[in-house]
């Protein structure tokens, strides 16, 4: 009897594993990407953004600069995790802001749930082994949901990426992202 249960458990586990979706996500044109694979880079930067969030859109120029400046050391992805996002909206957002990173759709919120992203814009930096190294805001341009400063006084994400590039620990590995809630995330 124990043997029968063991065989049943193995069969069900194998079936469940075979049905698991790989960590691949489509871009607006349908090409699949693996944002958790750092390759030969020092890490992966996941920018959770939304074309529907004014705060997220305010950060797009700085996000583009960071994605471009750190491209040699980090793989960067713009992640649209709103389950209701239209592919055309993600595509238009990409074109309108001349996005410098790979854009992916996470409509099932598998990636957002894995890293516990809840806000746009929110950034998660992962080591090549998938360990989170930094999570939070790009900088402190917004002191609160409606409290925009004249200019940012900290560069949280840049500081984290510079530390990682230099082989040093991130001094402040967690900050609070300010912006719009990702629909469906708790």
Q: How does this structure look, described?
A:
The structure is a single chain. The strands form four sheets. A five-stranded mixed sheet has the order 5-4-3-7-8. A two-stranded antiparallel sheet has the order 1-2. It is an alpha+beta fold and 186 residues long. It is 32% helix and 22% strand. Residues 1-20 have low confidence and may be disordered. It has a single domain (23-181), classed as Glutaredoxin, CATH 3.40.30.
Helix and strand topology:
Blueprint: H1 2-19, E1 25-26, E2 32-33, E3 43-49, H2 54-69, E4 74-80, H3 87-96, E5 102-105, H4 110-115, E6 119-120, E7 122-126, E8 132-136, E9 142-144, E10 147-148, H5 156-165, E11 180-181
Parallel strand pairs: 3-4, 4-5
Antiparallel strand pairs: 1-2, 3-7, 6-11, 7-8, 9-10
Tally of helical segments = 5
End-to-end separation in angstroms reads 42 Å
Order of helices and strands, N to C?
HEEEHEHEHEEEEEHE
Task: Please tell me how large the radius of gyration is.
Answer: 18 Å
Mean pLDDT: 88
Shape: globular
């Amino acid at each position: 009897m124990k043997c029968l249960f063991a065989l049943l458990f193995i069969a069900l586990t194998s079936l469940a594993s075979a049905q698991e979706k790989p960590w691949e996500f489509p871009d607006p044109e349908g090409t699949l990407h693996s944002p958790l694979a750092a390759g030969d880079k020092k890490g992966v930067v996941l920018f959770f953004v939304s074309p529907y969030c004014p705060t997220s859109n305010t950060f797009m120029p700085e996000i583009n600069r960071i994605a471009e400046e750190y491209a040699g050391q980090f793989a960067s992805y713009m992640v649209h995790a709103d389950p209701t996002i239209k592919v055309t909206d993600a595509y238009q957002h990409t074109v309108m802001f001349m996005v410098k990173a790979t854009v992916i759709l996470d409509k099932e919120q598998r990636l957002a749930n894995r890293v516990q992203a809840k806000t746009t814009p929110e950034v998660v930096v992962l080591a090549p082994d998938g360990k989170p190294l930094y999570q939070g805001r790009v900088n402190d341009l917004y002191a609160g949901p409606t409290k925009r400063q004249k200019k940012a006084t900290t560069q949280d994400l840049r500081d984290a990426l510079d530390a990682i590039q230099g082989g040093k620990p991130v001094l402040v590995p967690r900050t609070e992202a300010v912006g719009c809630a990702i629909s469906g995330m708790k």
